[in-house]
Amino acid sequence: MFCDYYDVSEAGNWEGHNILNVPRPLETVAKLHRISPSQLEERLAAGRRRLFEARQRRVMPHLDDKVLAGWNGLMIASMAKGYRILGEDRYRESAARAADFVMSKMVKGDRLQRTHRGGKSHTLAYLDDHAFMIEALLNLYETTFEMKWLDGAVKLNDDLMAHFRDPQAGGFFFTANDAEKVLVRNKDANDGAVPSGNSVQLMNLLRLSVLLDRKDLAAEADRLLMAFAEQLGGSSMRSERMLAALDFYHRRPREIAIVAKSDDLARADALVNAAWRTYVPNLVMARLVEGTPEAAAVALRIPLLAEKKTLDGRPAAYVCRDYACKAPTSDPDELRRQLGQ
């Protein structure tokens, strides 16, 4: 145990030294004051009680306990990816609970709200709230393969396109076109401690365009890149997340389709984990459960899954690029080899 208690008179010549940066063990301080460690602990405890009682007589600081859609999106995205890489079930469960909360409690009418506190949600969400939650729901889909997360991402993306898009110059404004009027609707691509909405949304557009084979979203990604081309060319490190999306854009992602029967999802999961735990900077992933009532609708919604089948009844992984696929495999090691090529 260390004690932040000092006696300059016992410490010698401290000129030129900052004694507050030199913590001492409790036993040392007790010895300097010629008392036992237990006596010193009693004195410190009494002092803490007096300080606490004095603090209680002052106005308590406000507690900032509001829930923000955007910040939850950042955390959900990280936890969803963390589950697949680390295999911690609690990360997936926490991510799903938080996403359920945002999508059920923080949507008023058909519009995402930015803030929730005391059972009430309010203030139309900004660009970053939408972009971060879209990324979160896409990560949750690629982690759980539950279609509700992909549906939620598409819904939020439709809202973002309708209310934040700059139809003239490309990119997205920070505020919605029906939000409270401001003097200037700014567009930003500066990534700091929190990434910019435009940077995250660029990657969202690219991922959705590949996953859903949406040429309109790919075109919107092109327009966004052109809107910030000068900034990327002149001061690229201001926009690290946008650079990651630019790499996705130019190098093209690996497209991974997993197909399995409903009673063989454990072996399919081994393929999914092999892909997640292999370093592949740019990928999209989808899964089809063969023979289920919804299989045809899922394959229609996600063209990457069209005409994909299990391999002699065993789970199969297809590694594709621009929808051109290698031979399917049921072997996690072979999948890793294909991803490394």
Can you describe this structure?
This protein has 341 residues and is an alpha+beta fold. It has three domains: 2-56, no CATH class; 67-251, Glycosyltransferase, CATH 1.50.10.20; 254-340, 3-Layer(aba) Sandwich (Glutaredoxin), CATH 3.40.30. The protein has 13 helices and ten strands. Strands 3, 4, 5 and 6 form a four-stranded antiparallel beta sheet that branches. A four-stranded mixed beta sheet has the order 8-7-9-10, sandwiched between helices. The model is unreliable at 5-17 (pLDDT under 50).
Averaged pLDDT: 91
Which CATH class of the largest domain is shown? Mainly Alpha
Proportion of beta-strand residues: 5-15%
Query: What Rg do the Cα atoms give?
Result: 27 Å
Structural class comes to: alpha+beta
Largest sheet: 4 strands, antiparallel
Number of strands: 10
Number of domains: 3
CATH architecture designation of the largest domain:
Alpha/alpha barrel
Count of alpha and pi helical runs: 13
Spans of at least 5 consecutive residues with low confidence: 5-17
Task: Kindly list the characteristics that best describe this protein.
341 residues; alpha+beta; Glycosyltransferase; Glutaredoxin; 3 domains; 13 helices; 10 strands; 13% strand; globular
Short description:
The chain is of the alpha+beta class and 341 residues long.
Present the secondary structure layout:
Blueprint: E1 2-3, E2 24-25, H1 26-32, H2 37-56, E3 67-68, H3 69-86, H4 89-105, E4 107-108, E5 111-117, E6 120-124, H5 127-144, H6 147-164, H7 197-212, H8 215-227, H9 229-234, H10 240-251, E7 254-261, H11 265-276, E8 283-290, H12 295-301, E9 316-321, E10 324-325, H13 332-340
Parallel strand pairs: 7-8
Antiparallel strand pairs: 1-2, 3-5, 4-5, 5-6, 7-9, 9-10
Helix pairs in contact: 1-2, 3-4, 3-5, 4-5, 5-6, 5-7, 7-8, 7-10, 11-13
